[in-house]
Amino acid sequence: MLDAPLVARLGRWSTRDVRVENYRLAAMACKCCAASASYVGILDANKCCIDRLGRRALPVSDVQVPYWACGNCGFVFTNYVDEWSAEDFRTKIYNADYEWINPAIPGRADVPLKETPSYANGKRIASFLHGSQDDIRILDFGAGGDPGPLGQGLIDSGFNVSSYEPYRVEEARKPKGRYDVIVAVEVFEHCHDLGALSAFMGRHLSRDGLLWIQTLLHPFPTPPDVLTSWYVAPRDGHVSIFTLPALSCLFNAVGINIVQTAVGTFGFRSVPTFPNRIFLR
After folding, report:
1. Alpha-carbon gap, residue 23 to 37, rounded angstroms
2. How far apart are CA 184 and CA 251, in angstroms?
3. What is the residue range of the signal peptide feature (predicted)?
4. pLDDT at 87
5. End-to-end distance of the chain based on CA atoms, in angstroms?
6. How many whole angstroms separate alpha carbon 63 and alpha carbon 57?
7. What one-character-per-residue DSSP string does 68-99 give?
8. Given this model, what pLDDT does residue 156 score?
9. What mean pLDDT do residues 248-255 have?
10. Tens-place pLDDT, residues 94-128
11. What was the pLDDT predicted at 20?
């Protein structure tokens, strides 16, 4: 767990005075389907995913973050960070201390890249695309590095991989053109501007490309205690919590179909023609 000096360094996330009574009365449009969303409650800004291990990593914050849930598609979200700049995200969430509350392996520090779960996941994804190494371009969206550990797993499997990190890595290359596979692993929950997200995927995913999505999908209808989920964690930047209908609403608007299979959740316009073990022809 985090030590006292680290907690002192993290400090308060914001000094904004959040008046919860106003949120209860505010009308909010869903970011996925534009239907009416209802206020479901608040979380303190220091709630972390790692708290699920049984002990809080950070003290309770007096900054309160409101969340809403859509009755039409089940999307759960906050608008707390909607006006933040990229610099705000870098300094308030994805700062040097972010790694402390998001260790590669809980309880271990300085894990070699090739021993991380993310690297293993890259190798796993590569196994489903085996045979297409010479045919496809891959974009690691939300890479966490240039390359990140997942991207390195794909590179080590012989794939041509570009990295893109919206907030955390300034040196990541900007995407150019269209990609045959866009891998988005544990990143959609961090995205607050969903119009920009769907437009990005619509612009950069090739006609028969594959969008590989990994984010924890919550049940729909939304349970009353949804904010007790370990995954709804503002200090980790988890500001958008999806359901399968919510993903479908968001990406259908740009012509991308969403399906859930035994392998995972995927988006595509036309079934990919390059070799893969996901869609068999």
Report:
1. 12
2. 14
3. none
4. 85
5. 49
6. 16
7. EEETTT--EE--TTTT--HHHHHHHTSSTTHH
8. 98
9. 98
10. 988 898 899 888 777 788 999 999 999 999 999 99
11. 52
What integer best gives the mean pLDDT of the chain?
A: 89
Residue 40 neighbours by CB distance under 10 Å = 18
pLDDT tens per residue, range 127-141: 999 999 999 999 999
In the block, tokens 């991308």 appear at 256
Distance CA 215, CA 203 (A): 21
The stretch 261-272 carries a mean pLDDT of 95
Written as six digits, the tokens of 45 are 């800004």
Amino acid letter, residue 93: I
Q: Which amino acid is at 91?
A: T
Nearest to 75 by CA among 44, 34, 43, 23: 34
What stretch of H or E contains 5? helix 4-10
* pLDDT for the residue numbered 29: 96
Compute the distance between CA of residue 211 and CA of residue 204 in angstroms, rounded to an integer: 10
Q: What is the pTM of this model?
A: 0.89
Residue 137's DSSP bridge partners are 160
What are 90's two structure tokens? 């870098």
Residues 6+ apart with CB under 8 A from 40: 67, 68, 69, 76, 222, 224, 226, 227
Can you say whether residue 221 is alpha, beta or left, with left for phi > 0 and alpha for psi between -120 and 50 degrees? beta
